[in-house]
Amino acid sequence: MTLAARGRAGVDRTDSDRELERIVREHSGRLATALMRITGDFAMAEDLVQDAVVAALHRWPIDGVPDRPDAWLFTVARNRGLDALRRQTNYRAKLAGLRWPIQPADDDRLRLIFTCCHPALSRPAQIALTLRVVCGLTTAQIARAFLVTDTTVAQRITRAKRKITEAAIPYRVPNPDELEARLREVLAVVYLLLNEGYLSTAERGQSRDLVDDAEWLAAQLHELMPTEPEVAGLLALIRLHRARADARFDPDGNIVLLKHQDRSSWDHDAIAAASRLLQRAARHREPGPYQLQAAIVACHAEALDWADTDWEQIVLIYDMLLCVAPSPLVRLHRSVALGYTAGPEAALADVDDLAEALDRYHLYHATRADLLGTLGRADEARTANRRALELTANPAEQALLRQRIDWGDDAG
Amino acid sequence: MKYVLLFVETEQFEKDFEAMSQADRDRAVQLVYKWMADHADKIRGGSKLQPATTATTVRLEADSEPVITDGPFVEGKEVVSGYTEIEVDDLDQALKMVSTWPGCPIVEIRPIMEIPPVHS
Fold this sequence. Notes:
Chain A has 412 residues and is mostly helical. Among the domains of chain A are: 13-103; 342-412, Serine Threonine Protein Phosphatase 5, Tetratricopeptide repeat, CATH 1.25.40.
């Protein structure tokens, strides 16, 4: 079962829905790539693919998935294209000459991803475009996954496509000297999908599983750029999370903390495979934020139980992470590990340093509450838990915090 | 593809510039000249503007006289201080060019709208 689909009664998306999405995702990006190559018009290629996807999601549940779904999508998009290009005879002839099956060159596939994630587009636009063009999501699916209206997503896409055309955002793979910065944009988009999917719980369980899309995108990138260690790092990070996804929620949809998770339900083969992937990436000796985050998750994933966790190692990796990507959030997480190596008092002092930066962040207060509880300062712990509850909007996290507050009240 | 680069100065930039020694200021200006020379093949025109304090803004509204005010159209800490029209292949080339700009801290890149000739 998938991460986002966990922990709720009544599964609304059936296996065939997911199968449908998988097929569409597998083929729509290829189709967009081919159309892009022929027409040279990003907006048009995108429109044609979206039309074909919407038609497929409408027809296939009724007629059944065709034997060759990619050929079906191809034919629909091509016919619509021929219709749309009636006046542009040059493109029309090229499109008419396009034959299935499509075998896009690796470079073309990369071009598509890099264009969708161009830094001149806003992050929400990058995400919406990538999901629509590369992963074949419909506007409605994106809207549901991010809890925004269809209109918002549609406007975002329209504006982004206009900008690509009118500001002449090129359709190309970045040069080696720009690659690092541009790849960072692409990985940030994939990472946000992971985060969004990972945090989404009960109410969003019915919508698209974005972690699945994140993994698929990272796997594509890894296939296309096998020597980029951060790509491999991000893919390993996603797979390490997914391998333990089933243990994250109890049957009632409540979050189960890592400490209390049933480690026998983790997918240990997947964990081992992801760890190997990470080790291969580490041989490049170019540690980056994704490899380091994956390394931390791997430390947890490889521990036999909570007590077996190698906290010294985890603190060390957090220190490296703070060097390459300093942030108060990383410091907050580091302080949790520090609690096990240097003791809760030292950890609390570290957390308290972050008061100004993280006062509006629920996990800051939840972490403080934990440490205060360990130190026997029950009243302060309860206040911190209450503050955390006020600040989180996530229903599953709210339920967890509420439970902890109730428990605290009972004990007090 | 043509773009206009709008060069934007901030209050802080202005202060820092004034605090520099004359020699440093001269050097900074030389760097800008050099940048202009390095990219001369792509530059189609443009100017440095007089300070925003010299600006006059006119607001034209229907059914009323134009309203004339002293100052730039938005009062803020960031003001347009110059512009350059460039011609390059695409936005990536413009970005590359701007990434080496040695002057003010903000540059806006705006594509120029190609208006087809009017046939009467």
